[in-house]
Design a protein that fits this description.
By secondary structure, the chain is an all-alpha fold. The chain has 14 helices and 2 strands.
Length: 335
């Protein structure tokens, strides 16, 4: 099979490249899932296909992109891309249940169809299968996905999801200023980093290069998550009635980006969203500006990391990809 770089054109044509790559990954997933889950019944395999359907394939695409940039063979990247997409899908199954979200990609969330117990167990099984398949490839591949899954779970565990969590955080003192940065690294940066590292492992890169690949992917993932959060901030501006329910989840973000706007953690347990709505209305332009600045800063860090890759890697290729991937998360991030 031809390498993905055969179709890579930076900047303006990246969307076409990515759509082509996504179509390829979709086809490979359809082919590999029965192989990954060969002990499952046909009905259970259908469920796996459903939870993997319609994803953006960003993490799997990163595996292939980095592998190709390092002159690796595409056939070595594909099973790793499948594994990272399985891990992403399983994490969303868990997230939907924990968050109480009833829809995912315009379909009913898995836990609403399978029940909470079966949905959680399904996510666990998918994690375990992905780990096992990567261990079959190499110890380093297995450790990469194990660490990614554990890191994502740590990030999810630290999130403030409801008033009870908020009260506990306040009882232990003010919200920690670094909490937002830790969460975006643990929940998103680490999996992007793992995807890029798997691409380097597929290309049989040196330990130094696999480390660089992880760092490049992690900075990209952090930028992507800030862009995603920025989009939520903008949506909430148009739907102020949703602000009180979103307050616990937004607390680390508001604390991190508001600075002199004096976000008070006491608002989390005030019992009324009126004060927060007023504060958010005043602070939103500041939040948006600083979030865009941090997106740009993370992308600059990714660019500097890409520049450290050894020849003959074209660092501009990775740099162009990083900016285009973040742009895919909404025009708000690019303004």
């Amino acid at each position: 099979m031809a390498g993905l770089s055969d179709r890579f054109v930076p900047d303006a044509a990246f969307d076409v490249y990515w759509l082509t790559s996504k179509a390829r990954l979709d086809a490979e997933l359809a082919r590999w899932i029965p192989e990954f889950f060969r002990d499952f019944s046909p009905a259970q395999i259908d469920t796996i296909h459903i939870i993997l359907a319609d994803g953006k394939r960003i993490r799997g695409g990163l595996v292939c992109l980095v592998n190709d940039a390092l002159a690796g063979r595409t056939e070595d990247a594909i099973p790793r891309a499948v594994a990272i997409e399985c891990i992403q899908a399983a994490s969303l199954v868990h997230d939907d249940y924990v968050d109480g979200d009833t829809c995912r990609r315009d379909r009913a969330a898995t836990w609403t169809l399978e029940g909470a117990r079966k949905a959680v167990l399904l996510g666990d099984v998918v994690f375990a299968v992905a780990i096992g398949k990567m261990m079959e490839l190499s110890r380093d591949d297995g450790l990469t996905v194990v660490q990614a899954i554990a890191t994502m779970a740590r990030g999810a565990y630290q999130e403030i999801m409801n008033p009870v969590d908020a009260t506990s955080a306040r009882a232990g003192g003010p919200l920690r200023p670094g909490l937002y940065e830790r969460i975006i690294h643990l929940k998103t940066g680490a999996l992007f980093g793992a995807a890029a590292k798997l691409g380097a492992l597929a290309a049989a890169a040196s330990p130094a290069v696999t480390t660089l690949a992880f760092e490049w992917g992690a900075r990209l993932g952090e930028a992507y998550q800030i862009a995603d959060d920025l989009e939520e901030v903008q949506l909430l501006e148009a739907h102020p009635a949703a602000l009180p329910a979103a307050l616990p989840r937004l607390a680390p973000l508001c604390l991190h980006f508001s600075g002199e706007m004096n976000f008070d953690a006491a608002l989390l347990s005030a019992g009324s969203g009126t004060d927060f709505r007023e504060w958010f209305s005043r602070a939103r332009p500041v939040l948006e500006t600083r979030m865009r600045e941090q997106i740009a800063a993370r992308l600059d860090l990714a660019e500097r990391t890409a520049a450290d890759f050894p020849d003959p890697v074209d660092a501009r290729r990775l740099h162009s990809a990083a900016r285009a991937i973040v742009r895919m998360n909404g025009a708000s991030a690019a303004r």
